[in-house]
Amino acid sequence: MCGLIDAYFTFVSRVDGIDLPHDTCRLMLMECLPSGTSLIERYQWEFLKMNNVHATRIANRLAQLFGRINRGRNDYGVFLIAGKELNIWLANDRNVSLLPPLLQKQVMLGRSVQEGMLLFSTSKVSDAISSVLNRDETWLNHYESEVKLGELDQRQMERARIAEPVMEEAALIESKYAAFIWNGDYGKARQVMEKSIDKFASTDTPLGGWHGVWLGAAFDLEGDSDSADRAYDIAKTRIGPAITLPRLNKHKEKNMNNQSNHFALSLLKYIGFSNGGKSHSEIQKLKEDLSYINKGTANQAEEAVRKLGEIIGFRSTRPDNDQGTGPDVLWIDDKNSFTIGFELKTDKKSPAKYQKKDIGQGHDHLIWINEQHVKYNHLGLLYVGPDGYVSDVANPSSKMGLCTIKEMVNLRERVLALIDDIMSAPPNLRHDAIEKQITLKEWNLDSLFKQLWVKGMSAMNTRS
After folding, report:
1. For residue 375, which of 107, 166, 235, 366 sits 20 to 30 Å off, Cα-Cα?
2. CA pair distance 47, 174, nearest whole angstrom
3. What per-residue confidence (pLDDT) applies to 244?
């Protein structure tokens, strides 16, 4: 709404280049998230869910958009936020931490105004707008105090702080890769991507998967179809079914028994190299990565549990880290339509106290999993942490269980011991060794859920 008389502008996919300062415009309605209009941006955002990759870009666009009518500290205006995606994005502290500091505070103020004034009717919204535009003294005092005091979730800010330089590095790696491919130096393109791919995956799972596609293409151009297939397979477990990738060695999979399960096929990617040294180096790196389940930081432990699920052959992601919502880790068995969510509490001291907030998060996670994977059988949510008790004011669901760190470590050790046993066989007999040592049911997701479930969270409630 612009000027001293009623007038309106509509900007379509425009976030910069037009300024409407002071009385030119005081009220802006913002609808939809500026996630981009190019085909590659839409594909990565809408289908591959590469939210963190685009978070900085979206933050810059939103900062520009807010700046269309707010041209300095002496300017003022009202922004009405419409659209589900935009509201969800601005409700995530990790995203908001990417905005300029003053705008961060203003977004938080908007949240508190919405909640505190219960702005759910046209009349209340109109009253709030009038208070701002008429420079009501009560409003000005409230604005000043809230902008000074508002704080974002420190955990989400830390995640954003860690991720931002990694995203910058990823962009540089992509440009180097593209230059090498353009010049026909496929070996150097592969090397530059190979060195960084797991680092990027530990910060952002879909980004690691996307780079896996690039790595597979480089291997393919070099003529290494075995490594290309492995890179494509790992990429698909990280990205999910929304991407179609080539299968260069279909005949090799046909040699596996028809009863071979997801775990058998996954193991083949690690130990099926014709180059024995390559297999050994991959396994040593795998052991180091999985050691963080009980020896790393909270972030490293999450990535280690995700990696363990990936090795066992599941689609394994970190929704909270990658999308800002959902459980810390999610294992998905697409073939049998099962899911398990994990909430990691490995940083709690033993005996652990699971607070009302911890259980409340769990209820949110279960709802999210149900909404995101409608046709799946959701086995439950496992809290990975020390044994202890649940606060008597918390109300755990029957689908919430405790998986002690010891049980998760036991699963890791079983997997690694199995890999060592198979590696002890001659390379030409490893396919047979995989067939003999892996039973179909033992490594299914529903069987693993029973193995990892130590007790129900409701049984740990102090009221029990």
Report:
1. 235
2. 20
3. 84
Q: What is the mean pLDDT of residues 155-179?
A: 84
Residue type, 117: M
Give the Cα separation of 147 and 133 in Å (integer): 18
134 is written with which tokens?
């008429």
Classified as helix, coil or strand, 382 is: strand
User: Where does 288-396 show beta strands of DSSP type E?
Assistant: 315-317, 329-333, 338-344, 352-354, 377-385, 388-390
Reduced to 3 states (helix: H, G, I; strand: E, B; else coil), residue 433 is helix
> Does 17 reside within a domain?
no
Res. 276 pLDDT band, cuts 50 70 90: low
Q: In terms of Cα–Cα distance, which of 68, 53, 54 is closest to 15?
A: 68
Q: Residue 403: its pLDDT value, please?
A: 97
In the numeric block, which tokens belong to residue 323? 């999308």
**Token pair listed for 203:** 């910060």
Per cent of the chain over pLDDT 70 is: 88
Per the listing, tokens 């073939």 go with 335
Query: Residue 257's pLDDT band (boundaries 50, 70, 90)?
Result: low
Name the residue with tokens 């606060």.
391
Which tens digits make up the pLDDT trace of 432-456? Answer: 777 776 766 788 999 999 999 999 9
| Residue 365 pLDDT exceeds 90 | yes
Domain count, the chain: 3
Residue that is written with structure tokens 């908007």 in the block? 110
- What one-letter code names the amino acid at 426? P
CA atoms of 221 and 225, how far apart (whole Å): 9
Cα–Cα distance, 354 to 390 (Å, whole number): 5
Same domain, 204 and 345: no
In SS3 terms, 181-222 reads as HHCCCHHHHHHHHHCCHHHHHHHCHHHHHHHHHHHHHHHHHH
Q: Both tokens of residue 157?
A: 């800010």
Domain boundary among 152, 183, 207: 152
- Residue 355 shares a structural domain with residue 435: yes
Helix axes of 225-239 and 262-271: crossing angle, nearest 10 degrees = 130
Secondary structure class of 394 (helix, strand, coil): coil
Return the SS3 of 67. coil
